[in-house]
Amino acid sequence: MSELRFWPDQASDIAGRTDFLVLILLVITGAIMALVAFLLLGFAIRYRRGSSAKRGELPELLKKEVEIGWTFATLLLALFIFAWGSSTQLSADKPEPNAIEIHVVAKQWMWKVRHANGAGEIDALHVPRGEQVRLIMTSQDVIHSFFVPQFRVKQDVLPGRLTELRFTPTRAGTYNLFCAEYCGTLHAKMGGTVTVMEPDDYARWLTAQPQGDDMAKEGAALFTSLGCAGCHVGSSTVRAPRLNGIYGTQVQLAGGRTVTADEAYLRDSILQPTRDVVAGFGPQMPSFAGIVGEDDLQRLVAYIRSLHEGDQP
């Protein structure tokens, strides 16, 4: 006979905190429900038809005290729960400098995974135990949602946008991956597995996978074939922002705003170049929307991220 479990195994760093938060919420809501039920039953008995209980309006002062006290008590409780839940989520999203970066593209009805060294997977994800994993995700068609119950993580995957998900696996094993957002006819079959391996086993597995060029090298080839090098290299006669070392820096825009050059900014600059024009430059770059797909966008962004000061694109 299998063991009866209240919820799935805990297999990530956030799972324990999430379960504790859910348990406290159940206790609080259960206590409120019990209090309301007790008062309802007590008043129903006390003020039943034919009872001698005194009936009439409460004193005005007492009514105000009860209403104000109950309102403030529930408000403070709601703020406490919100603050606690937010701090739990924000602490889970805290980035680590050596996090393993993996790109995920969702489409009807499959998960396409690409590791930094070029190794690819379909409907499967292999990660090492004890190391933070950073998933950079987007969708080719409709909204999907990356959900692993044992990790207590769920993140919507949106078309036309990048979303991130960070977690640290804590227990080796194979866990089910689901799409938690209805995405079409075969939504129920859009799943896969996440395999958590010991670090040494993961290193051997990654080395044994068929590999092409890494994403940055493939992005460099695209950068040239799409004509980007004609404007963004130092010898170009067209004035365009230089890309060396731009990733992670603050970029001054023509409208006076300042933005961080992260993955989302680089992606938007490729698809919607006239939206956030860099100060000192004109809106002359053409849009590559409909020309490059999600996979090519990932390669181009990976290449631009790899450029450092002094490099020549």
Description:
The chain is an alpha+beta fold and 313 residues long. It folds into two domains: 167 residues, Immunoglobulin-like, CATH 2.60.40.420; 92 residues, Cytochrome c-like domain (Cytochrome Bc1 Complex, Chain D, domain 2, Orthogonal Bundle). The chain is 36% helix and 20% strand. The protein has seven helices and twelve strands. A five-stranded mixed sheet has the order 3-2-1-5-8, covered by helices on one side. Strands 4-10-9-6-7 form a five-stranded mixed sheet. A two-stranded antiparallel sheet has the order 11-12. A hairpin with a 2-residue loop joins strand 1 and strand 2. Helix 1 runs antiparallel to helix 2 and helix 6 crosses helix 7. The longest helix is centred in the first third of the chain and has 33 residues. It is elongated. The model has no long low-confidence stretch (mean pLDDT 83).
